[in-house]
Specification:
By secondary structure, this protein is α/β, with parallel strands linked by helices. The chain is built from 16 helices and twelve strands. Strands 1-3-2-4-11-5-12 form a seven-stranded mixed β-sheet, with helices on both faces. It has a five-stranded mixed β-sheet with strand order 8-7-9-6-10, with helices on both faces. Helix 9 packs across helix 10 and helix 10 packs across helix 11.
Length: 358
């Protein structure tokens, strides 16, 4: 089982600037604004539609498959894709989304901002899906000093960069950070506008493949506990609609089983969602660990030998305080209130033939 410590994927400008407007995180197009008074978004109780804010990421493959195959019994799940994490977080904070797929720093930042949510499931941990591209004349991480680095300020990529710099005796002040989104960073790297780009799949592979004068200098395969994603819901929605949240968790597990049992169809669905060839999906799935039900139960409850999610988030909040990104660390008691393991505890692993039958 993977151990899940404190460092994660797409940090955020949102941490530094407040919720409105300029949050800089992930998203390709903002969904149309919707109310949270019962139309299926936010904490409303009137609709069977559950809207989930996401950014393009291979770790959300079960969500894409479950949505396409209708695996969410009794509810309709609609993923809303953002190119900016900031837009995703702002939409959730405004109550325009029922749920959200988010990384550790985003989870901590939202708690620090007083956003009330419940983490109901872990989606994945990154095992190479996030990384840093560098031209061949960049000898090592220490050679980042004075270089132009394309990175989305405040994104999880930025947070990942902070950790890499720290472990090599550098700070953000030692580089020239160029504030661009993950896809734009990869494109700038390809074009030679920046020497270094911090990004994630599918942009990591694309940037690496299309720029022969360079390589992936470091990725999360060297830091396998660095980045994880979770699914979180509006707190009111969870208390008012527990059966819908359970249907979501069950559907994700069914989709995960389907990816294993019918990979050809699953890869096609995922590829269409991420706008990559189905042949690339298998390789990208090797860069993440889609969290099993057993691991979900252990991580969300803190039982077992590995670090639980509560400890993970508390430790992460300490780091963010040290980086002057939030004002005060989260307490164990506060984080415990944000995690609801009951849905993964009540779930069962679907049989492969059950997923195939759909």
């Amino acid at each position: 089982m993977t151990q899940y410590p404190a460092i994660t994927r797409r940090k955020m400008m949102w941490l530094m600037g407040g919720l409105a407007g300029g949050v800089a995180l992930h998203g390709c197009q903002s969904p149309s604004t919707t109310s949270s008074n019962g139309d299926g978004n936010g904490s409303g109780k009137g609709s069977d539609t559950v809207t989930v804010g996401v950014v393009p990421w291979i770790g959300y493959s079960p969500l894409y498959v479950g949505e396409a195959k209708g695996f969410f019994e009794g509810i309709t799940v609609e993923s809303k894709t953002f190119s900016s994490n900031g837009d995703n977080l702002a939409s959730f904070a405004s109550g325009n989304l029922t749920a959200q797929a988010a990384t550790n720093p985003e989870v901590v930042a939202q708690a620090a901002r007083g956003i009330d949510y419940r983490i109901v499931m872990m989606a994945d941990s990154s095992l190479g899906g996030d990384g840093i591209l560098a031209r061949n004349d960049v000898a090592d991480i220490a050679d980042f000093k004075g270089r132009k680095v394309g990175v989305e300020i405040g994104s999880t990529s930025y947070y990942f960069l902070l950790q890499v710099l720290k472990e090599n005796g550098l700070t953000i002040d030692d580089i020239e950070a160029v504030n661009i989104t993950a896809d734009a960073a990869a494109a700038a790297y390809q074009a030679g506008t920046v020497d270094i780009a911090v990004t994630y799949q599918p942009f990591l592979s694309t940037g690496n493949d299309e720029q022969p004068d360079g390589r992936v200098i470091i990725d999360t395969s060297e830091m396998p506990t660095a980045i994880l994603d979770v699914y979180l819901f509006q707190a009111d929605f969870v208390s008012e609609n527990p059966e819908k949240v359970q249907a979501f968790v069950n559907g994700i597990l069914k989709a995960r089983a389907f990816i294993e049992s019918d990979s050809e169809e699953a890869y096609k669905i995922i590829g269409e969602k991420l706008e990559v060839d189905a042949s690339e999906v298998e390789a990208q799935l090797g860069d993440v660990d889609l969290t099993s039900l057993e691991d979900n139960q252990k991580v969300l409850t803190g039982e077992g030998e590995s670090q639980g999610l509560t400890e993970n988030l508390v430790t992460l909040s300490d780091f963010l305080v040290a980086q002057d990104e939030i004002d005060a660390p989260l307490t164990t008691e506060a984080v415990d209130k944000l995690i609801d393991p009951s849905f993964v505890q009540a779930a069962a692993v679907p049989a492969a033939e059950e997923a195939e039958a759909e």
